[in-house]
Amino acid sequence: MMHSRLSEALRLLLAVATIATGLSCAASTPGVRMLTSSDSIVSATDTIPGAPDEIVLTLGEAELSGTVTNETDSTAVNGPKASAYDVWEPRETEFNPDPTRAVWMSALFPGLGQLYNRRYWKLPIVIGAYMGLGYATSWNNGMLNDYTRAYRDIMDNDPGTNSYMNFFPPTTKEEDLDRKWLTNILQSRKNFYRRNRDLCIIAMVGVYLVAMVDAYVDASLSHFDISPDLSMDVSPALFQDGRGVKPSVGLVWALNF
To answer: Helix H segments across the chain?
Structure first.
């Protein structure tokens, strides 16, 4: 009885030793791994013994590989995903006019400096002033020429030069006119229209200079802070009066803007 039990125990030990030896050999053989209950038939049949770098894929790994392949294909078709830093955003640039350039452009042509400063509403004012003064200068100059010629004709002794009669109706006779009174009238009118013509020319020069100054100041103060927030600082102070020895006490105030 004892002998039979010992023989059965030895058989069990030999069986366990044989199984352990087989497991160790399978684990040490390259390209071959043990099959578990989760392995599929496909993975078992795809295993090639003797290939050291062979990767054995299970069904779950094949599905994962297919997912990665689909994502790679979509990336190749649609291109790489743009990051937030690669998105172009338009930015508004603040216009900063140059005062010197504005002056030179206004000197080149009146109103051009206002256009450079983007003060378009000032252009009709400058052009209108020049057109009005130009017309006034031309009209006064024409009247001055007429009265100058009439005054010159009445002052000479040639009876054929009587352009001063053009200022009267055709029915007026030269003999009925007071020659001295007419001479004074022609002289005063001549001086009057000369003065108006000269004033118009001076005004045109003034508009030219004012347009240049306006262009320079407008360009210089284009970024001047005109915020309505104002503050006032008030502090006591001593004032030395030259008429007395003792100083005077008062307040000093300052506006900050």
So the answer is: 2-28, 41-45, 59-78, 99-108, 112-116, 123-155, 179-220
